[in-house]
Design a protein that fits this description.
The protein has 3 helices and 7 strands; from the N terminus they run βββββααββα. It is α+β, with helices and mostly antiparallel strands. It has a domain at about 35-70 and about 105-145.
Length: about 150
């Protein structure tokens, strides 16, 4: 069976020439990352985000934290209710009334410079993580003011 020269399903007779990959180019003014806030990396002159680089000089930073508390039954209470169900049927079900509050939330860090903006949402589980993010952003604010 012969294939036609314009048949799209036939294997190519001459594959297209491949070009060697270009070496990655470093952005102007790139250096070591000084501060990492979520997925945002900050060097001495550039803010690296997944959406692209933003100049550090003149950038404004905003932090907002969003907390909520979640009620759930602890694992030990579920185990005690199941094990106790064999011994004291009614009283063991009282373990299922035990609730614990689990704080959860996100810290939203927004960096803006001119028309470019990036928002990072960082999940947190306690107040010390929130304080650390606030400290990091305050340090980056001082770098941006230089």
């Amino acid at each position: 069976m012969t294939s036609l020269p314009n048949d799209p399903w036939s294997p190519p007779s001459n594959p297209p020439p491949t070009q060697p990959p270009l070496p990655p180019t470093a952005p102007v003014g790139a250096g070591p990352v000084i501060v990492q806030v979520g997925e945002i990396g900050v060097t001495s002159s550039v803010v690296h985000t997944p959406a692209g680089d933003i100049p550090l000089a003149g950038s404004t930073w905003q932090v907002s934290d969003y907390w909520h508390s979640e009620q759930r039954i602890p694992k030990w209470a579920i185990i005690a209710a199941v094990v106790g169900f064999c011994v004291l049927t009614v009283f063991s079900l009282l373990f299922l009334l035990v609730k614990e509050a689990v704080p959860r939330g996100t810290v939203q860090v927004t960096v803006t410079n001119g028309t470019r903006q990036y928002v990072a949402r960082i999940p947190v589980t306690d107040q010390s993580q929130v304080a650390q993010i606030h400290q990091q952003v305050n340090y980056v604010r001082s770098l941006a003011a230089l």
